[in-house]
Amino acid sequence: MRALIKSNIAILSQKIGLLDLLLAKHGATQASDAFQKTCPIVQASIGQHYRHSMDHVELAALVASTAAQDASIIQQGGELHYDLRVRGGTLEKSIIEARKRLIDVTDVFTSLNETICEDKLIKTSSQPVRAYFNISADDDAEIGLASTIERELGFVAHHAIHHMAMVKIICLHTLDLTKDELPIDLGRAPSTLLFDKRQES
Fold it and tell me: H or E element: which one contains 133?
């Protein structure tokens, strides 16, 4: 589970790094405009991709933290409703509020990693939960899938990486940032990075 926590922290760090780049390069007002600017290629803004992926990451982080503190709460039926989200709000429009959220969720993961003993982390990782999604646009009923906290921490990290790939497109094609300006390996999956390393050796 520590590897999953580390992975999520690394993704959050990339997200913070990109926001800091925008703020340093453009100042607060122009950075805020860039954060909200819709890319015609992906039909969304950085803010929308951040908010969407952070809704998932934050939910999984809080469920994991709650289980680590009091497993009985999760044993009674931990649930993650990924599609119950607030769209169009402050968290996808304010670069400052988005950055604060990233730091707050990073703190949850850091606390989980630093304050929970190994035995408790192992028990927490295997705690059963149900993950709920809307699977079809023809029916608004959620589908609940049996899972574990560990599995959901892996899912939200994987999900976030793919959204960061979309953010990279926005940066390069709509905000006119260069690849060299962006955080290293932004939006690139670990499997891709491992493949590239094997090709180079």
Answer: strand 128-134
Is pLDDT above 60 for 74? no
Alpha-carbon distance of 108 to 9, in angstroms, equals: 10
Burial class (CB in 10 A: 0-12, 13-18, 19+), 120: middle
Integer Cα distance of 156 and 19 in angstroms: 20
Instruction: Single out the residue of 124, 73, 108, 101 nearest to residue 16, CA to CA.
Output: 101
Task: Say if residues 165 and 41 touch (Cβ distance below 8 Å).
Answer: no
- Percent of the chain clearing pLDDT 70 (strictly above): 97
Residue the block writes with tokens 């509020």:
97
| 103/9 Cα distance (integer angstroms) | 10
Rg (CA), the chain: 18
The C-alpha atoms of residue 14 and residue 148 are separated, in whole angstroms, by 26
Q: How is 12-54 classified by DSSP, letter by letter?
A: HHHHHHHHHHHHHHHHHHHHHHHHHPPBTTTTB-HHHHHHHHH
Query: Any idea which residue has 């503190």 for tokens?
Result: 69
Residue 123 reports pLDDT greater than 70: yes
Nearest-CA neighbor of 47 among 11, 106, 88? 88
Q: Which two structure tokens, joined as six digits, stand for 70? A: 């009091």
Kindly indicate the confidence band of residue 76, based on its pLDDT and cuts at 50, 70 and 90: low
